[in-house]
């Protein structure tokens, strides 16, 4: 059976990664984006952002002719059978969701459908608050196209669960697929597409309503954020208890099948383009329908305060940070990405500058994106060893593999004052504390006997 042709509106992490993966398995894909420079790079086989495994997939898909990008929305819709909306959904000033790009994409798709006779499936993959698919996307497409949803075109909500740094792997091997269908024909068409894509490796499919699909995505991210904030709260308790270690506590409670080990890694807090934005959007939406969200409030509060714990540990050893040289290792919100969106490193560096510290930073992938935020207010090292050279304190903020290889002796040799703060728990405290003035999130050394 011939595989469906697919278009994507929005070629960010979700749109481009999903497009390249589909194209690699024989789907003809057209990607639309308003950014002409991005479209040019994609058509040259170059990913406009760093994502492991994407460059090769994209290059091969473009060369084979299975994927191309365009700045013409009409071309994308008229030459495909299924259109995924994968535009961004940023936050408004009050934290509520900003749907302007979803609304714009819906209108453009509707205008294109006005010129199409064949039935077409529209799939909302962007993260949107409950009721958006049926109360915003559907009427906008109907108005622009002059058609009726459920008769002339299909509609479904299909949330994504991709993680930056492993988005390609997550696309090929997801835990489940959620299809929020407007009608059975729409759900059947989308399920058929995924059956063609996954073949015998089809993951579990949950077919439900659009509003459930929308809420599943928000509930998923809110729970993950809450889990991280919870273990960070426990880490802060451990910090005050002689001999306590949050990694031991987390490992033990993670063995409980009701809890599980994932997202129980204490650190400087969660970041990235999704968790913070999504839980604030859920909070504001909930308030709009008269529901309070005390767990979300606590989750946000703990996360906001967490980077300050690292500052406190630095001051414990150095006193005033004014004039002190602080080396920050890691700027992206997680390893294997160049994304610094809402990264804990941003909050840390801002606080260090406010305290009068001289800040020097290094990250193997995210330097350029960090420069856009801080400019010449901080220094940028060409590598990790240059970053810690002459520093009074070094802080681990992202668990890049190359940082794990820096020995205690290297820190001792290169730093002016060998104070090391492990914000990501990548070093064994019993080893590093023998050589350095060492601190780690959620760790308090046992009393010397």
Question: What's this entry about, in short?
Answer:
This protein is of the alpha/beta class. It has 2 domains: 203 residues, Rossmann fold, CATH 3.40.50; 222 residues, 3-Layer(aba) Sandwich (Rossmann fold).
Give a structural overview.
The chain has 449 residues and is α/β, with parallel strands linked by helices. It folds into two domains: 6-208, 3-Layer(aba) Sandwich (Rossmann fold); 219-440, NAD(P)-binding Rossmann-like Domain (Rossmann fold, 3-Layer(aba) Sandwich), CATH 3.40.50.720. 45% of the residues lie in helices and 13% in strands. It has helices spanning 13-24, 36-43, 54-63, 73-78, 100-113, 132-145, 167-172, 184-198, 210-239, 246-254, 275-288, 294-318, 344-354, 367-374, 384-388, 401-404, 408-414, 429-432, and strands at residues 6-9, 29-32, 67-70, 82-85, 120-124, 153-157, 177-181, 205-208, 325-329, 358-362, 379-380, 393-396, 419-422, 437-440. The strands form two sheets. The protein has an eight-stranded mixed beta sheet, with helices on both faces. A six-stranded parallel beta sheet has the order 11-10-9-12-13-14. β4, α5 and β5 (120-124) form a beta-alpha-beta unit. α1 packs across α3 (54-63) and α9 packs parallel to α12 (294-318). The longest helix is centred in the middle third of the chain and has 30 residues, at 210-239. The chain is elongated, with a radius of gyration of 24 Å. The model has no long low-confidence stretch (mean pLDDT 96).
């Amino acid at each position: 059976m011939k595989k469906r042709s697919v278009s994507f509106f929005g070629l960010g992490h979700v749109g481009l990664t999903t497009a390249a993966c589909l194209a690699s398995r024989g789907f003809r894909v057209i990607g639309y984006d308003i950014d002409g420079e991005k479209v040019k790079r994609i058509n040259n086989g170059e990913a406009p952002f760093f994502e492991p495994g994407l460059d090769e997939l994209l290059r091969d898909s473009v060369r084979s002719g299975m994927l191309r990008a365009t700045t013409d929305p009409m071309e994308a819709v008229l030459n495909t059978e299924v259109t995924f909306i994968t535009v961004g959904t940023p936050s408004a000033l009050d934290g509520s969701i900003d749907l302007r790009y979803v609304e714009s994409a819906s209108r453009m798709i509707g205008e294109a459908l006005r010129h199409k006779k064949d039935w077409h499936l529209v799939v909302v993959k962007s993260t949107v608050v409950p009721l958006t698919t049926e109360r915003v996307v559907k009427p906008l497409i109907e108005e622009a196209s002059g058609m009726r949803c459920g008769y002339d075109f299909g509609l479904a909500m299909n949330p994504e669960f991709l993680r930056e740094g492993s988005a390609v792997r997550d696309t090929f091997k997801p835990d489940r697929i959620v299809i929020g269908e407007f009608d059975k024909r729409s759900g059947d068409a989308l399920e058929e597409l995924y059956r063609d894509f996954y073949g015998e490796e089809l993951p579990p499919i949950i077919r439900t309503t659009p509003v459930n699909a929308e809420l599943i995505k928000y509930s998923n991210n809110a729970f993950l954020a809450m889990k991280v904030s919870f273990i960070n709260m426990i880490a802060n308790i451990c910090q005050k208890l002689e001999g306590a270690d949050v990694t031991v506590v987390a490992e033990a409670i993670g063995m409980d099948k009701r809890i599980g080990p994932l997202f129980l890694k204490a650190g400087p807090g969660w970041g990235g383009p999704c968790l913070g934005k999504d839980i604030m959007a859920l909070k504001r939406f909930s308030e709009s329908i008269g529901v309070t969200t005390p767990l979300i409030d606590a989750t946000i509060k703990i996360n906001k305060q967490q980077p300050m714990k690292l500052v406190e540990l630095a001051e414990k050893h150095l006193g005033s940070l004014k004039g002190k040289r602080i080396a920050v290792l890691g700027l992206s919100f997680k390893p294997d990405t160049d994304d610094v969106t809402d990264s804990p490193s941003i909050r840390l560096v801002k606080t260090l500058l406010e305290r009068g510290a001289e800040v020097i930073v290094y990250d193997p992938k995210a330097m350029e994106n960090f420069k856009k935020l801080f400019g010449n207010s901080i220094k940028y090292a060409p590598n990790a060893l240059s970053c810690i050279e002459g520093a009074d304190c070094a802080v681990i903020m992202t668990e890049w593999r190359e940082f794990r290889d820096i020995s205690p002796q290297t820190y001792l040799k290169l730093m002016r004052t060998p104070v090391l703060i492990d914000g990501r728990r990548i070093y064994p405290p019993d080893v590093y504390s023998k050589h350095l003035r060492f601190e780690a999130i959620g760790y308090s050394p046992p009393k010397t006997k």
